[in-house]
Amino acid sequence: MRKIFPTRNSDKKASHPVRLFCIALLLVLAPAIPAQGGERLHTFKEPHMGTEFTIRSWAEESRAEDLTLSVREAFARIAALNRALSDYLPESEINALAKAPAGVAFPASEDLFVLFETAGRLSAKTEGAFDVTAGPLIRLWRISRKNQSLPTPEQITSAKARTGFHHLVLDPDKRTILKKIDGMLFDLGGIAKGYAADAALAILKKDGFPRSLVAASGDIAVGDAPPGEPGWKIGIETLDLGRDL
Predict the structure, then answer these.
(1) Number of structural domains, the chain?
(2) Per the domain annotation, does 112 fall within a domain?
(3) 2, 139, 203, 214: which sits with the fewest CB atoms below 10 Å from its CB?
(4) For residue 66, what are the contacts with CB-CB under 8 A and spacing of at least 6?
């Protein structure tokens, strides 16, 4: 049902009955005018990975129930990835890798191995600026922020010694990850949400909903364009230099 918002003059008596009749007629007819191709936009939201995931899909009303089932599957996939990839969850696969002894090949799931392969390529391209092995430094600064005190130079040096993708050996044939040193910690925050968005979009496409978008904060996966549009419209918030980042 459409909401009619009053204007500042809505408390005055109407002086144009013909105009009001035309507006009323349009409001009656509007619900009967379908979107191009008979599709309409459906929006779903759930919290995952410390943020809100939003799924927007164009679908015909006759397939609304099928879309709901597909979205449930997509959100379930995101939740499963979070259980495997979150360094906040003690029993996650990423923490199991961190606890594994050095020199022993760790059998990784397909998702974890693909992410580490991708992370390795990004690390090489950025000369180490993108580094999923920065967990010791991230953990150190989390603790320092909580305690409201800066880490000591010795603590920073110790954390740095346990970072670096060169400390890992990936075997694509056996799908294993081997750590050369102990004490490594991992943080996939820079890549996991985008991977999850891609995985969710793949499910929607598989189920016959290619006109879909999956957004996880700033990580966005888009499918085919909405009806009658060249692409999805993405808004970017203007940077507020006075706000803490």
Answers:
(1) 2
(2) yes
(3) 2
(4) 59, 207, 208
